[in-house]
């Protein structure tokens, strides 16, 4: 399948997937600029931002992967005829206002409070020049591991190299207009001391939140009272000062020619401010997309400084990268909890979408998440075994390595091997790690009640006497029959009993599929152990 043709462009103009909706909004903005006599000069710029005040987390990754999806949709919509670039800007010149709780050497860090993050020593080692350099390296490492095409930009370098200087001087010229935008958004006490410019103290190196005594747009300088009480005048260029974060947002859009940016809901109320400041500086603000925030298992916002939630590295230890991209793709405007329990479902949903793709038409494919995850080049890969089923197989077989697991898998899917099904082989390794860390510590077997015991005896007898096919559906029918014969009004209670009594958990895969992969005789032995009470001490 190729996506560089007239048919693909036509489909992209109508496709309902949210990346296409955003691509069309961006194209409309560019068309409006051209009609207004202000056509876009140079590549279309997609921006993502990162605050290196703490270690990067999945929310940071999500912003990049989602932006990359919009960028690809835009390429298809425009038949790849418009050049683009994606930039990732680290706000590493921000002052360190608090010490993250999840980093070492906090006493040392305390002596550097207020300094730009790029001037704070790396608390982890002497490998990096600063705390920001360490976090920036972590960010780039996992973005690189996913193969993103992006350019990394440091705010410190942008300020100090002079690249921001023209817009900083323009902001100084427009000082009163920017103040007129900002002051109504502040409380009375904050208004009395507010300045859009934050000088870097020549004496202490700290970012100062102080009012301006005077500004001189012609000279390009600001005058303020330094920490020792002395009146100090500095140029706003060359890294001597930076902007407050809200004016900085709008200035960055203007200075870098940003055309598209998405950000979390916590920015939603301030987005009009960013846009106003961008316009004051003479530049049309970018198309914008607001996504909902990720929450931890307690429903609290994920925070870099707290280190709650899941890191990218942690997710990738237990599941393939594609499942993480899928989780980011799904319903970006709905708040979602992001903790380890969501991983198995995300993996199996990815497998379902991947399996459906070959039989779909072009319209359905462009709506399929895997089209966006793989930039339209979807691999012909599949897994005949679900992740949930693998987890239960690891549990029942007490498998500690992939070789043991493949012994069962090969019986269920004789044509599959680690060589022919590398995705399944990866899933086997992930399942073992996930089971050991999250399932096994929480397993709790219970004894069956009299009704469940009778049904298990009946199921055992049917399995023992069965001489026909041992495919998943045939075995599932036997399980259903045993439940119905023992008058479980709600068969879900029967399956719940199977999971809790035989597997020590409250949920699992289709039980017929489990028997097919684990083995009929092995399942009979498992039932015997449960009836004898041996699993209770497992």
For the termini, the CA-CA separation is 51 Å
Mean pLDDT: 92
**Beta-strand proportion:** 5-15%
Spatially, the strands of the biggest sheet line up as 3-2-1-9-10
Shape: elongated
Descriptive overview:
The structure is a single chain. The chain has helices spanning 6-12, 18-35, 58-77, 106-110, 131-145, 155-160, 165-173, 175-182, 188-193, 245-256, 271-280, 312-318, 321-329, 343-356, 362-367, 369-373, 387-397, 402-412, 422-439, 450-465, 472-485, 491-503, 511-518, 520-531; strands at residues 44-50, 84-90, 151-154, 197-199, 214-216, 221-225, 231-235, 241-243, 258-264, 287-291, 294-295, 336-337. With 538 residues, it is of the alpha/beta class. It has 3 domains: 1-161 and 292-381, Rossmann fold (3-Layer(aba) Sandwich); 387-437, no CATH class; 450-537, Arc Repressor Mutant, subunit A (Orthogonal Bundle). Helix 11 links the parallel strand 9 (258-264) and strand 10 (287-291). It is elongated, with a radius of gyration of 29 Å.
List the helices and strands and how they pair.
Blueprint: H1 6-12, H2 18-35, E1 44-50, H3 58-77, E2 84-90, H4 106-110, H5 131-145, E3 151-154, H6 155-160, H7 165-173, H8 175-182, H9 188-193, E4 197-199, E5 214-216, E6 221-225, E7 231-235, E8 241-243, H10 245-256, E9 258-264, H11 271-280, E10 287-291, E11 294-295, H12 312-318, H13 321-329, E12 336-337, H14 343-356, H15 362-367, H16 369-373, H17 387-397, H18 402-412, H19 422-439, H20 450-465, H21 472-485, H22 491-503, H23 511-518, H24 520-531
Parallel strand pairs: 1-2, 1-9, 2-3, 9-10, 11-12
Antiparallel strand pairs: 4-8, 5-6, 6-7
